[in-house]
Amino acid sequence: MLQDAAASPFPPVLRRDLAPGSPHPIPHGTTAGTAAGSDRRAESGREGGGAAIVLDRVSKTFSARGNDPAVAALKDISLAIPRGEIYGVIGRSGAGKSTLIRTINGLERPSSGDVIVDGVTINRLDERALRGERRKIGMIFQHFNLLSSRTAFDNVALPLELVGLSRTAIREKVLGLLDLVGLSDKKDRYPVELSGGQKQRVGIARALATDPKVLLSDEATSALDPETTRSILTLLARVNAELGVTIVLITHEMTVIKEICHRVGVIEAGSIIEEGPVSEVFAHPRTATARSFIGSLPGREVPAALAGRLGADPATATQTVLRLTLTGDAASQPLVTRIARELGIDVALLGGQIDSIGSHPFALLYAGVPTGAWTSGAVTAALEAAGVDTEVIGHVA
Ligand SMILES: Nc1ncnc2c1ncn2[C@@H]1O[C@H](COP(=O)(O)OP(=O)(O)OP(=O)(O)O)[C@@H](O)[C@H]1O
């Protein structure tokens, strides 16, 4: 643990934020507003304003090569990621996630637009200045990218050797980082002797070595089993909460977003099609893509026994089956029974899950309502008035 300030691998500016149990610097659910980068910059008089990262109308087109046509990988993306948040970007394969994250650390230069990290317009720096700025931006990868010829200690030490730190300072810092990630006892092990989760811990320690303000995570848990994924996400949440490091992570797994992100952006064909606090996007997804990602979470799928009964002709069906999403207070109130009583109808509860996203209660229920009551519009009106997100998933005879 980082209790001894002298032994801390982090400089005072980061240690100031080390207050276990202290409230998150940006409360869960805070609305940052989507970009409008120039407005934010004008407001604060400093590029980037209160945001750690601003993407201001960023597009990236890869030019045509041989028979391959040009690819518009990012299209006019504007985003503002507040300091101290964990921001998830979710999208399917080829949607543009890697390109997006690579523009943030300057590995890709946008074709147009600006990328501002901690007040610095990354895409306007020359190579030398960019190398310096990159030290403030750590990155972890799906396949860890460790050097196989170096021990865990030496992998973490590498970025510090590159900046010319003394051997004593390197040792002190690396040991602190290995302690932070729970790998003190593995410091002399080579990557081949470590599990996937342990390798990712080394990757995280290495990414934190230069005291970055921002940590980018490129599918960092995609190669790990669910239990190890959870432990790595817990570590990232700690790095965020205790060190105040802003984290941007890209993933194709909604579980990752649900576990640790404050905000989420859904990317499709190079555009951010939906964006907001995770609890909001979960409660009221606006796009079919967001709905389908949420539907892919374990326990969210239609129960098998129910799925087998769906498909009756709506004209002759007796029950219409609804997927109800209740959040916040609605999730812990007897809303469904109240509506059933008020409308004088029987409601069959056919499956579901009660859960939470951060501190927000969240319930997903499969309910069968009499088809006659559904077609009359009374059920829709009552559910809408109660703020319940409702989707018809089929009919049963
Ligand atoms: N260097 C490049 N040259 C040409 N096209 C590229 C290049 N890098 C990415 N692309 C294209 O840009 C689009 C977005 O790719 P990107 O790797 O950002 O997607 P992704 O969402 O990260 O996908 P995945 O989850 O499969 O990694 C794809 O059509 C891809 O083929």
TrEMBL record:
Residue ranges constituting the ABC transporter domain according to the UniProt record: 53-294
Region (Disordered) residue spans: 1-49
Domain of life: Bacteria
One GO MF term: ATP binding
Gene3D superfamilies: 3.30.70.260, P-loop containing nucleotide triphosphate hydrolases
Membrane spanning stretches: none
Keywords (A to Z) from UniProt: Amino-acid transport, ATP-binding, Cell membrane, Membrane, Nucleotide-binding, Translocase, Transport
Family: Belongs to the ABC transporter superfamily.
Protein name: Methionine ABC transporter ATP-binding protein
